[in-house]
Amino acid sequence: MAKQKYNYGMIGLGTMGRNLALNMSDHGYSVAGFDKTASQIDAFMQNAGSREVFATSNLVDFFNALESPKKIIMLVPAGKTVDLIIDELIPHLKANDVLMDCGNSHFTDTDIRSKKLEKLNINFMGIGVSGGESGARKGPSIMPGGAKEAYENIKDMLEAISAKASDEPCVQWLGPGSAGHYVKMVHNGIEYSIMQLISEAYHLLKQVGKASNKDLHDIFSKWNEGVLNSFLIEITADIFEKKDELSSGELIDKILDSAQQKGTGGWTSEDAMKLQVPLPVIDIAVTMRDISAIKQERIAMHKILTGPGVINTYDKDSLINWLQEALYFAIIASYAQGFALLYAASKKYKYDLNLENIARIWRGGCIIRSALLENIRTAFSQNPGLSNIIGDEKIAKKLMGAQTEIRKVIQIGSEAGIPIPGFMMALAYYDSYRSEWLPANLIQAQRDYFGAHTYERNDKEGIFHTHWEAKK
Ligand code: 6PG
Which residue has its alpha carbon closest to ligand 1 atom 11? Predict the structure, then answer.
């Protein structure tokens, strides 16, 4: 039994839950933990040291340990587990209690759960938390959605534990219902995209530029000091110098080239398809993880299918410079696509998102934090109705300034037969988006030809259909 009442409850004392609880405790919030696994409770108590915490696997004791109204955070694997736990909690929850799901739940699940709990007057909040284990411990970026009034009860705590960027907390109430989880999903879509682009740059540097791991460490470290400054570039530089503990050389060369995924990137693409928002760089990032995972097929095809191979060599400094610019270009395109989806989803799902706030809270703590987000934030602050950041003059200039280099990089990849579809999609997106005319008139003609789907004309109002097979 607990000797006192605790401010917050934490359900799920895995690494994320544990670290978030310790972060809360560091900021003066007392936390009672619940986990069904005894070893997790032990780990939590051990990590807590002399801190004022309590942990149990008895739900009654857990609830008795919390001050009322209860404020409970769940950090458990997304999916069915969340529903099972909610069902177990419901008999113990009372009106005005706040239940927070801080996992990567699908936004449609969050909507269903919110409605179910709303009927019982229980406030359910879907909260995206980004930053991994160390973010949870030292300050994550936090993306809360749900009832605004409920948010007021947890706001001070979330601001205290969040990352800070230019002294501003990286947390902001984003909107009702599933707004927080939606924004976190798109964050992850952008995350997939940037990771894919970085790995393409690595591929070219390694195979065309013949860069060693030491060179790669130096290149990425240098890039991190310039326009590409970001968490993902920074950790990439670190990765290349990590020695393997099980054999000689660097660990990177021992890791199987088969990427896994929990699904959030794919969810982003799925919903974008549904809302008809083009996200080609994010889509291809998901696809490339899938292609990487069919390793056995790739090995078999490698023996059959031929390609050009690396023939041309390039001046190393030029290659590094072209790739830096190409990455900058394609990363801007990734953010542009993610924010364009948020713009559309905000209208469709009535989230009423403030995109400037989202750029602001992504500047610190989260996986996609980068110097570029400051420019994106400024773009939205100057034009809150911006439907695509490429519409911002300064951002458009950055893209235009790097287009020669990305075209060069694509040429190098294609002549060597090295797959760099992220770069290709970024450029194709740019070239399509700036095209006054696209050959979709032919698609319309074909649709009308075989399916009588009709078409519009560019010189007359109305809907038209043609008997295409009639005598010429
Ligand atoms: C974050 C990460 C985090 C997690 C991803 C990994 O923002 O902290 O996005 O949520 O690392 O879910 O996703 P995949 O397993 O799909 O790569």
Answer: 132
Q: Are residues 429 and 447 in the same domain?
A: no
In the block, tokens 């989260």 appear at 366
Q: Quick check: 471 pLDDT over 80?
A: no
The answer on pLDDT for 415 being more than 90 is yes
- Tell me if 131 CB under 6 Å of ligand 1: yes
User: Mean pLDDT for the chain?
Assistant: 97
Burial class from Cβ neighbours inside 10 Å (0-12, 13-18, 19+) for residue 95 reads exposed
Please name the helix (run of DSSP H) or strand (run of DSSP E) that holds residue 168, with its range, or none.
strand 168-169
Q: What angle do CA 241, 246, 249 make, to 5 degrees?
A: 35
Of 148, 177, 206, which residue is a domain's last?
177
Q: What is the mean pLDDT of residues 163-167?
A: 97
Q: What is the mean pLDDT of residues 293-315?
A: 96
Best residue among 264, 282, 368 to mutate for probing ligand 1, ranked by most atoms within 8 Å of CB: 264
Q: Based on the fold, state whether residues 461 and 425 are members of the same structural domain.
A: no
Q: Is 391 in the pocket of ligand 1 (CB under 6 A)?
A: no
* Rounded Cα distance, 164 and 37, in Å: 33
Question: What confidence tens digit (pLDDT) does each residue in 354-391 have?
Answer: 999 999 999 999 999 999 999 999 999 999 999 999 99
Q: Do 222 and 163 lie in a common domain?
A: no
Question: Structure tokens of 392?
Answer: 């911002």
Active site residues: 184, 191
Provide the pLDDT confidence category of residue 472 given band limits of 50, 70 and 90: low
| Cβ atoms < 10 Å from Cβ of 239 | 17
- N residues, the chain: 472
The domain in which residue 402 lies consists of 184-433
The reported pLDDT for the residue numbered 53 is 85
Cβ atoms of residues 360 and 164 within 8 Å: no
Distances from the Cα of 356 to the Cα of 141, 341, 377, angstroms: 15, 14, 5
Q: Are residues 236 and 125 in the same domain?
A: no
Residues 214 and 293 in one domain: yes
